[in-house]
Amino acid sequence: MNITRPVVRPLSGTPLTGTFAAPPEAGPDDVTLWWLGQAGFALRHRGRLILIDPYLSDTLAEKYRGTLFPHRRMHPAPVAPEAIRGVDAVLCTHGHTDHMDPGTIRALLPHNDPRFVVPRAERARALERGVPAARLTGTTAGERVALDGGITVEPVPAAHEHLEQDENGDHRFLGYVLTVGGVRVYHSGDCVPYDGQSELLRSLRADVALLPVNGRDRHRTENGVPGNFTVREAAELCEAAGIPHLLCHHFGLFDFNTVDPEDARDALRRRATPLSWTVPRVGDAHVLTPSDTPGDPTAKEDR
C-alpha cells in the first residue's frame, strides 16, 4: 500500500528566537513549524507567522499553587512571549488556560497586533483574557476563516472529553484545519475520539495531524482534568482519516498530565502501518514540504 505524504524534516539544534525565522534549510514554499510545548505551535510561511494555543507563561502555576495538581513546568518556555515579533494571527482552540493564556496574550500585545481566532462560544472568556475586541474573530465548526497571505482556517468539532455546544449551537471545543503554503495541517485541540470524526477529517484531506497523546484516566477526570487521545488512538485516527503524518504533543509540561516520550515512540514503532510520525522535542523546527511522491509502505520514525 502506497500513500502520498508531505515531507516532514525535523531540524534539531536550530536556535529559536522571537522572530521565528525560517531555517536556511527551508525552501521558499515550505512551512516551518515549531512545537512550543503542551498544545502550542508556531507556523511560519514566507512573511506570515501564526501561533496556535501558545502557553508561554506560568499562569497555571500561580493559579494552582499548593493544590493537588500544582501545574509546575517541567521545562521552561522555549521563547519568552514578550520577545515575540511579527505575529499575524493567534488561534485558540478552546478556553482552558493552557490554550487561551492571559499571560501569553498580554505579553504579545505590546509588540504585535495579531488577529485572534477563538470559538465563538468562548468570546466572553477571550475578552476577559485580554484579547482586544477589534482583533477578535469568533468561529465554530463548519465555518471558514480567511487570514492574510492566503491562509485559511476550517474549524471542526473537538471532544474534550465530550462534544459541547452553547445555547446557540456553537462548539466550545474546536480543532482547526489550516491550509498554509500548500500544506493542510490539522490541530485537533484537546480531543478524544468521537463518532464521525475520521469521516469528517478524511473529507478535509489533512496532510499532517497535530494530536495530543497524554491520554485520560478516572483520577484526572474526577479532579477536573479532562483527557485526550492516547498514543494508540491518535495513530488510529490518522490511519482511519487518511492523514499520512502524526506529530504528537501535549506531553512533558506537567508531571500529572503527561506520557513518557520514549513509551510513545515505542508504541508507534510497533505499528505495522504506512503512518509516519514525529514525537518532537520542544523548540525544534520542523520543515513541511508538500509532496505527491508515494510514501514507503512501512512505518517511518522522524523523531
Q: In a few lines, what is going on in this structure?
A:
By secondary structure, the chain is α/β, with parallel strands linked by helices. It has seven helices and 16 strands.
Order of helices and strands: EEEEHEHEHEEEEEHEHHEHEEE
Over the alpha carbons, how many angstroms does the gyration radius reach? 18 Å
**What is the number of beta strands?**
16
Major sheet characteristics: 8 strands, mixed
Which spans have pLDDT < 50 for at least 5 consecutive residues? 293-299
Strand fraction band? 15-25%
**Which of globular, elongated, flat, extended, rod-shaped describes the shape?**
globular
Q: Strands of the biggest beta sheet: in what spatial order?
A: 1-15-2-3-4-5-6-7
**Share of helical residues:** 10-25%
Helical segment tally?
7
> Overall mean pLDDT score?
93
By secondary-structure content and strand pairing, the structural class works out as alpha/beta
Distance separating the two termini: 23 Å
